[in-house]
Structure formats: structure tokens, C-alpha cells
Amino acid sequence: MSQGLLVVDVQNDFTEGGSLPVDGGAAVAEAVGAWVRERRSAYTAVVTTQDWHVDPGTHFAAEPDFVTTWPVHCVAGTPGAELHPGLGDGFGELVDVAVRKGERAAAYSGFEAVTAEGEGLARWLERHGVTAVDVVGIATDHCVRATALDAVAAGLATRVLLPLTAGVAPSTTDAALVELRDAGVEVVTAL
């Protein structure tokens, strides 16, 4: 089995001090960075996903409902859209490909993202022989959830490494974990 690691949306705007912060986001950035440095050789590929909004239409709202509309976040080319520095110096050198999503529409799943050359994540993983993925990042109940569901739907053996994620709220995180397990995603609660 060829294992990939999907590092989902560990961006400045999704951590404390960002425009759409998730409590524990900065700690997750540090933990993910340490995990990748310690375990890099266990993965065939390491992929980062990023929200990269140019004009996502109704995804941004002045009065967001925090379900389908959100405050302005991760605008392409801004510091808020960049990967969090807590991932550590040299993290980028350990990453095989960065994919970006949501330029002109809401996008939650990393499988909606493309490489700089326009290749979709599913095709990139297939081309590199990846048959299983670990999913980590922010937020457990939104983009991590959507990415893991799409991974298992694509036929990949999929695990969410829960200690390397941060959720928006306990109730929505708990509901997401039930949905993930029901879909066949393995939720790893201890590393």
C-alpha cells in the first residue's frame, strides 16, 4: 500500500489571530510539522491543500451564517492564505505538491483543488501510485471532513489522524466523526 499524507488548509486565517480562526489551529500546525519531519519516510507523497479565494461569490458574506457563508478568508496572495509558520522551517521542502481550491466558488474538499498546472488531486495521487491517505489539518468538521469523504469515495483507504486536526465546535466535530466512520474512514484517536 502506497501511503500519502494530505495536510488540509493549515493556513494563517484558520488559526488564532486569523480572519476565521479555529481554536487549537496553531498547535495543530506545530504538531503536523513535527509529524511530517518525524514520519516523512513513511509517506510516498505529502500534499498540502489551501483555500485560495479570488472571487468565491456568495461564499463570502457580510453577515455569514457559518454554514454555507463565511467572513472573508484566505484571499489569494494575502498573508492569511499562506501556510502557517508553525509548520516549521523547511516544511515546504518535505511537500511533494501544493494544491489550491476555491478561486471562484466555495470549496471544502482537497479533491476540488488543483496543482499549479491544473491537475486535480485525485489524478495526481493516482499518477503517483498513492492508494491510501492519512488526512490531517483544519477544520475537522469542514475541510478535513470533506476531503476524507472524497478520498474514501475515490477508493483510497482513508484515515483521519484526529490528534492532528482542530475542529470548529464539539457538536459539529462529533457529527463529522460519525459521518466519517459511517463512510468507511478510519478515525485514529491516538498516535
UniProtKB/TrEMBL annotation:
Against Pfam families, the record matches this protein to:
Isochorismatase
Q: What class of enzyme is it?
A: hydrolase
Query: Residue ranges of the Isochorismatase-like domain?
Result: 5-190
Name the GO terms of the biological process aspect.
pyridine nucleotide biosynthetic process
Mind telling me which InterPro entries this protein's record contains?
Answer: Isochorismatase-like_dom, Isochorismatase-like_sf, Isochorismatase_Nicotinamidase
Which domain of life does this protein belong to? Bacteria
Its pathway? Cofactor biosynthesis; nicotinate biosynthesis; nicotinate from nicotinamide: step 1/1
**EC number(s) per entry:** 3.5.1.19
Q: A single GO molecular function, which one?
A: metal ion binding
Name of the molecule in the record: nicotinamidase
Leader sequence residues: none
Record-stated family: Belongs to the isochorismatase family.
Q: Keyword set for this entry?
A: Hydrolase, Metal-binding, Pyridine nucleotide biosynthesis
